[in-house]
Amino acid sequence: SIFNNKDHNIDLYGVNDDIEVDYKGYEVTVDSFMKVLTNKFEYQTNSKRLLSDKDSNIFVYMTGHGGENFLKFQDFEEIVSEDLNMAFNEMWLKERYKQILFMIDTCQANTMFANFDAPNIVAIGSSELGESSYSHHTDMDVGVAVIDRFTYFVLEFLEQNIHNKKYDGTLQDLYDYLSFERVHSHIGCKLDFIDKDKTLKDIKILDFFAHTQEIEKIEDVDEESDEDIINFKNLLASRLNYTLVNEKLENIINNNKDEKKRIKSLNEINSGV
């Protein structure tokens, strides 16, 4: 469970943990994060991949302990701003996104994106160089802060404003909401768009916070004419044949071993051993 308030009214993982979490605990490493972004997996299930393309709007939110040009993972390793910049550039070259909204909440957060140069990225951070980011309130049951101020007010803004797909707010509205009076630090922003005239006022919040999924209805088809089904059946058959051949080879090898042992025993008997 994850809570954004000490009252524990809302579990951000949903009722009965119905929010799917692909990586958690010690699976969350710099290496796994970079592989998700760049899709550099040797073997990995689709559920743990970012299956994006050139039409995808991607939202990346990072929070935790950090400093100038770095953010800690598990208090054990660090990701640096240059790593992120290289990953985003690689994603652009591989056509893995249309635009990225990158938000980060940590001390000196704005240094993490100061040198970004990958196209079509808008980055918003919680604090300037040499400036801390502050926690919002403490949960006395566990004795630590539940949430930081920047993250708290980002969540508050979204909960107050995003209720349906007709919401017309922009990232400028969100940016203005994150005032010094609320956050207690100076937030920052950097835009690197191919369209140099683009501003926060031109970017709709629902471009990143509203998920739409097209569902294609597949009509019943004749099995013999469905190429995918036929190919799948052939694949299963080939794998089954491969397994049967292996089993036969293994039986032959085992039988040969037994035969060699039998002949050796007979030879030893004949030689009087």
TrEMBL record:
Pfam families: Peptidase_C13. InterPro entries: Caspase-like_dom_sf, GPI_transamidase, Peptidase_C13. Keywords: GPI-anchor biosynthesis, Signal. GO terms for molecular function: GPI-anchor transamidase activity. GO terms for cellular component: GPI-anchor transamidase complex. Pathway: Glycolipid biosynthesis; glycosylphosphatidylinositol-anchor biosynthesis. GO terms for biological process: attachment of GPI anchor to protein; GPI anchor biosynthetic process; proteolysis. The keyword tRNA processing does not apply. Belongs to the peptidase C13 family. This is Uncharacterized protein.
